[in-house]
Specification:
about 90 residues, alpha+beta, four-stranded mixed β-sheet, two-stranded antiparallel sheet, about 30% strand
Length: about 90
């Protein structure tokens, strides 16, 4: 199963380590350093050009920025395919 993170981009569900809110983690110097190091190491990928609201950390060390909130991503993960409300 895959999780849509915006702009046609998906991440395999079983490869996700965590979902993080950028507003919350940007307060911490450790988190800012983690994201900065990820950018320098070219592990950060943007799902689209909009301002990101969250990031998805994958088991391969990838960091996928998304404009979808962590609540929205969690809902997508917890909603079985074909049961989403129209």
């Amino acid at each position: 199963m895959f999780v849509h993170i915006g702009n046609g981009q998906t991440v395999p569900f079983d490869k996700i380590i965590g979902l993080f809110d950028l507003d919350t983690v940007s307060i911490s110097a450790v988190s800012r350093d983690f994201l900065s190091r990820g950018e320098k190491e070219k592990r950060v990928r943007y799902s689209d050009e909009d301002l990101p609201r969250s990031f998805v950390l994958t088991e391969d060390g990838g960091i996928r920025l998304s404009r979808i909130s962590t609540v929205g991503l969690k809902t997508r993960i917890n909603t079985p395919p074909g049961t989403a409300e129209e």
